[in-house]
Specification:
By secondary structure, the chain is α+β, with helices and mostly antiparallel strands. The protein contains 9 helices and 13 strands. The strands form 3 sheets. Strands 1-2-5-3-4 form a 5-stranded mixed beta barrel. β3 and β4 form a beta hairpin. It starts with a helix and ends in an 11-residue tail after the last strand.
Length: about 300
């Protein structure tokens, strides 16, 4: 189709031909990804071949994903599905978890043999057999040179040892969060954003580690979700500790309620008021200093 023909279809309200999008998974309990494909007849549960950074890897179709949602819109995809698996490839794909489990067992035994201070998390074997990756956690640096020699001798392929942190370990193992849903990191997150205690304070959350920490014992990733909204709303409101005047009386801002856009203010006689957005925006803001008449 020429550019003029495609433009004519758009002008007439018809969308141009485009790739179909699918949700795929490389491992049975792994994370889902979005993939594009020129083929529109793949079915849920069907094994297919997808392009990755290191070549073709088999994956399973989970379901079709929404398309661009309208002409002119572009949807990104992490991978491209090229074709179905052959019978021989399908058999190898079905046996891949068995090979990875064998690698996990052998490596665990070798770690114990060499008395290494490390914990194996996961084993991933490339479909073409060119490499096996062993993911592990450790508190300190580990000299695993002898371990790698034994693994290479055992599997006769390239071996890579990759140390991960506790957050990545949780991402690989999966689980349920305190909200009752599948962990964000293992279900859809591509990377970890920085999380700080400031985010919990900004959202008026209890600073109890048990309440704001995930199963990885690190601060909850979801603290980052609403933080920008709270931060922006607070920025528009009078700051805590500032003074405002209401009916000739000076009130000190005691607390902000960003989502309700309310202020809790207190006077010198300890009189406490709750002001809605319309009220506090109409008031004259006083200076950010304590009045001379203030005794508390």
């Amino acid at each position: 189709m020429t550019d003029m023909e495609e433009q004519a279809k758009i002008s007439s309200g018809e969308c141009p031909e485009e790739d179909v999008f699918y949700r795929i998974r490389f491992r049975s309990k792994g994370q889902e990804f979005t993939a594009s494909s020129p083929m529109a007849d793949f079915l849920a549960g069907e094994p297919v071949m997808a392009k990755t950074d290191h070549g073709l890897e088999p994956a399973t179709i989970i379901k079709k994903a929404p398309s661009c949602g309208g002409c002119g819109a572009k949807r990104g995809a992490s991978y491209t599905v090229t074709r179905r698996l052959t019978e021989e490839e399908r058999e190898r794909y079905e046996n891949l978890p068995v090979a990875e489990q064998k690698g996990f067992t052998v490596c665990t035994e070798l770690i114990a043999k060499h008395s290494l201070e490390m914990s194996l998390v996961r084993v991933e074997k490339f479909f073409n057999g060119s490499k096996i990756i062993f993911y592990f956690t450790a508190d300190n640096r580990v000299d695993f040179r002898e371990l790698v020699k034994d693994l290479v001798q055992e599997f006769r392929t390239r071996v890579e040892m990759r140390q991960v942190g506790v957050r990545h370990e949780t991402k690989m193992l999966g689980g349920l969060g305190t909200c009752g849903r599948e962990l964000c990191c293992s279900s859809y997150m591509k990377k970890f954003d920085s999380v700080s205690i400031k985010m919990a304070k900004e959202q008026d959350l209890p600073l109890n580690p048990a309440k704001i920490s995930g199963v990885c014992n690190r601060l909850l990733c979801c603290l980052t979700y609403e933080f920008p909204t709270y931060h922006e709303q607070r920025r528009k409101m009078p700051k805590i500790g500032s003074w405002i005047t209401l009916n000739g009386v000076e009130y000190k801002v005691k607390q902000q309620r960003p989502l309700q856009q309310q202020l809790i203010v207190v006077a010198a006689n300890n009189e406490e008021l709750v002001l809605d957005e319309k009220k506090w925006q109409s008031l004259q803001k006083g200076k950010n200093k304590k009045p001379k008449s203030d005794k508390h």
